[in-house]
Structure formats: structure tokens, C-alpha cells
Amino acid sequence: MTDVTLYHWEPNANSGKPMLALFEKGVAFDSHYLDLLNFDQHRPDYLAVNPLGTIPAMTHGKLVLTESTAIMEYVDEAFDGPRLMPADPVDQWRTRWWMKFMDQWLAPSFSMIGWSVFVGPSVRQKDPAELEAAIDRIPMPERRVAWRKAINGAFSAEEMTESQRRVALGIGYLEQALGQREWLASDEYGLADINGFNLAYAMPLSQPQLCNDELTPNIMRWLRAIYARPATRACWALGRTDLARRISLLESEPA
Ligand SMILES: N[C@@H](CCC(=O)N[C@@H](CS)C(=O)NCC(=O)O)C(=O)O
Question: Which of 72, 126, 182, 213 allows an S-S link to 21, with CB 3.0 to 4.6 Å?
């Protein structure tokens, strides 16, 4: 029993961000796994923690924290361990620039693609009446829309094309930045890298025509370096689905 509990799904996207920050800081926490594909995040016991019904959430004593990037910043400030926000003001600005770019611009596009190719197909075969009841329990109307689109394969061609355009642009930005310095926002590993890795780790598999050893050697070096860190290994050990097994590509040497 610790005084920190993290409510999370896979070590991936929003859930993976505070998980990895906690492991990097060496903060002991109780892991409370919620199966997103089983709609655990909309059940009353979790809604009592986060009434919005989205993952992740973290409790620290009586304090309840939501929003993955804000939780990472809290973890960095509230606990001992290596500093994850750089000390230099310009590096701090760059860290926050990247986190905003990823959260507001890239993550929704990755999410739409992921919900279309993974989440929708993973739940579609369930009983339709059960699915409809599960969707009706979702507190946020926009999440109900996303679930229906994922289940019915109804993201429009325009939406998917725009997401793909944003992902291609993001890959270009990442490759350029990582050609200039070892880590995304400064010379030290930090919050921007944790945020970016959780969003981008699967790019060599999901976007092989855009992200590979030949076209984006700097992104590949960066992903491999983050994956090799003990904290990332510990974090990924908490994964239960195929998402956690997809990473094996990063265990290989450059082609
Ligand atoms: N801005 C929030 C987004 C949280 C969020 O939407 N999480 C997704 C999983 S990555 C979720 O809970 N989806 C469940 C649902 O929509 O039912 C954050 O960064 O924590």
C-alpha cells in the first residue's frame, strides 16, 4: 500500500505518460488497471474518482489528479528523484511547446487512427445491445460520438486524411528536432520525451512508410534509447494487451 494510486489502461498514450514519469522518478505507486475495451472507465467505482470517465487519474493521499500532462508535471514537482522538467527557461519553453503540440495537435490524430484500427475492431463483435448500453453510460457526449464512430467504422475519409496529414507533419517535426539534439527539448531526458514516446512508440509499425531507419534515423535512435531505459521496461511490464507486445521492433538494431 502506498499513498499514490494510478488509475490507468495500457502503458500507452495518456495512461503511459504519468506511469512512465512515476517510474522515472522512482515513486512507488499502486497500479489500478482499467480495461478500456471493457468500458471499466465508465463504471460507478471509477466515476467516483474521475466523473468524466476518462483515463488516467491519480490519487495522492486525498488529492485526486486528472489530465495526463498536468499529472506528469505534478509528479515531477511533488516527489524526489531526477528532475524531468529542465532547469533552463528556454528548455522549459521547448518542453511545454512539444507537450502542447503533442496533446492538442498530434494526439487527437493518433487517437482517431488508433480508435479506427484497434479500439473499434476490438469491441465490435460484442453484443450490440450490451454495447449500446455501455455507450449510454459514457458521461461525456463527445466520447459517446467517438465510441460510436469507432464501433461503426464511421470516421469519415476527410477526418482520416486530415489525421494522416497531421501525423506526417508531426513525424517531420520530430525528426528535425531530434537531428539537432539528443532529446526532444533539451540535453537531458525529460517530460517532452516521456510525452512523445507514449504517443510515438508505435510509429515504425503504424506508419512504416514514413517512420523507419532510413527516412527517420533520429526518431528511431530516440525511440530505441527510451525503450532501453529501465523505467520504460518496468512500465511496459504492466501492459496486458498486444499493444505492449508491439514494441519488440525497438529491440532490434538499425537495419
Ligand atoms: N486530456 C486527457 C484525455 C484522457 C482520455 O481521453 N483518455 C482516453 C484514453 S487514452 C480515455 O479515457 N478514453 C476512454 C473513453 O473515451 O471512454 C488526458 O490527457 O488525460
Answer: 72
User: At a CB cut-off of 8 Å and minimum separation 6, what does 124 contact?
Assistant: 151, 153
- What does the pLDDT read at residue 252? 76
Cβ–Cβ < 8 Å for 241, 10 = yes
| Ligand 1 pocket, residue 143 CB under 6 Å | yes
Q: Which of 31, 55, 73 is nearest to 194 (CA)?
A: 73
Ligand 1 centroid vs 14 CA: distance in angstroms?
A: 7
The stretches in the chain having pLDDT less than 70 are: 244-247, 255
Inter-axis angle of helices 13-25 and 107-114, nearest 10: 120
Q: Does domain 89-226 have CATH number 1.20.1050.10?
A: yes
Q: Which atom of ligand 1 is nearest to the CA of 15?
A: 10
Mutate to test the pocket of ligand 1, among 54, 113, 135 (most ligand atoms within 8 A of CB): 54
What phi and psi, each to the nearest 5 degrees, are found at residue 10?
-70, 160
Whether the CB of 12 sits within 6 Å of ligand 1: no
Domain ranges for the chain, please list them: 89-226
Is residue 151 lining ligand 1, measured as CB closer than 6 Å? no
In terms of pTM, does the model score above 0.90? Answer: yes
